[in-house]
Amino acid sequence: MRQRGRHRRRRRGRALRAFLAGTALALTAAATMISASQATVTDEGPGALKPLSASGAERLSLTEETVPRSDLDRLAAGMGRPVGVSAVLAAADGRLRGADGCAAAERRALPVSPAATRAYCWNAGDTDGWQPGAVTTSGDADDDGMWGSHRVILSGWSRSGGAAADRGLARVAFVDADDLGRLSYTWVLLAVPVDGGRDYRGLVSHVSGMVWYQNKLLVTTDDGDTAALYVYDMNRVQRATVTGEEVGRVAGGWSAHGYRFVLSAVGSYRLDDAADAARPTAVSLDRSTSPDSLVAGEWTLDGGDRTARLWRYPFSRAEGNSGLLAADTGGRVRVSQAYETKLTGVRGVLSYGDAWYVSRAAEAGKLHGVLWRQTTASKDDARAARCGAAGSYDCWSPRTESLSYWAETGEVWTQSGRVLFATPLASAERTAAQRPQKLADQ
User: Cα–Cα distance between 280 and 297 in angstroms, integer?
Assistant: First the structure.
């Protein structure tokens, strides 16, 4: 994207914040309240983040691999000229329901504190058999919060039902958020080029982490694909020419599991073979660092005996490396910061300034999870909102695998179940005022 003047970004930012403030929806108390009988006091917290040793941080390194340009050109020649994000948004054929249209069961996915200021629900007919995952926005893509003339939200999903051959397929909803009172969207299938660019296969992964930075989309992968992150070029969206359940080249053209658009990977960041190598399952963007950085965290079992690591990779400033991580001449990408948290059940992770926000999934038998605020300073310990008559820390949404901060609006976007919602980061900071008893050092 073309760099814009700082004065223009500030004017647009002020106007956007004013617009959002004027259109913010008021969610009812019924949508954001739990009873005392549903809340249990949590007296112990995870304490401060503990820096990893140099050797521990080195095990989180990745290796960059790129798809040959000739493969990408061959695929584009076969499928036709790539289209941009605007063309995808113009083809929107789905619409999210506003908070008032969400069912009571769906609204139970909203946090108690900090409360959501916006909420939308996906339609069952369009999401049955699919598992929700990560969220990223044009607020990540460009520092003025826009992609060209559009405000955009990307929502990742993976196939959890249907035929065995379809399991794990990944797709992304391109959501037109120009009008926050009317969100429309189009599905795009994520794919990986094969056979030298003569064909592609579907990406097989749960999309638990996703960051759109500049013209690249970075997507976490799990057991279905062995890369830690796949890289997509947002200027290389292709149109499918055949409507069918198949994926790839078929008789008569190109198919994308019934969708009209497909996005094929242009590269990846590969894992090391070591058992304790990086396994990023949650990622987000931090624009408060210099250079901007990709924040990552790993999933751990709720109540397990292994704590989670949180770390960051710097983005490249080199010419021609738009949207890519900073790699050395050997393609090695090393962390710039790495910590250990005593939390288990980690899902989403977000860093801004000196604070790290980590969402913890709801424990068995509970309706809500916890959003913890941690720093490296032991005097701050860890903090979380409290709610209900019993003063529980279980105030967050039950399962948010992704946290995306939209700096120009001051909001954190995420999704849980069929609910896409946003809450101001200032509210998360303000409500995280209770300091629990610190766990004993391990």
Answer: 5
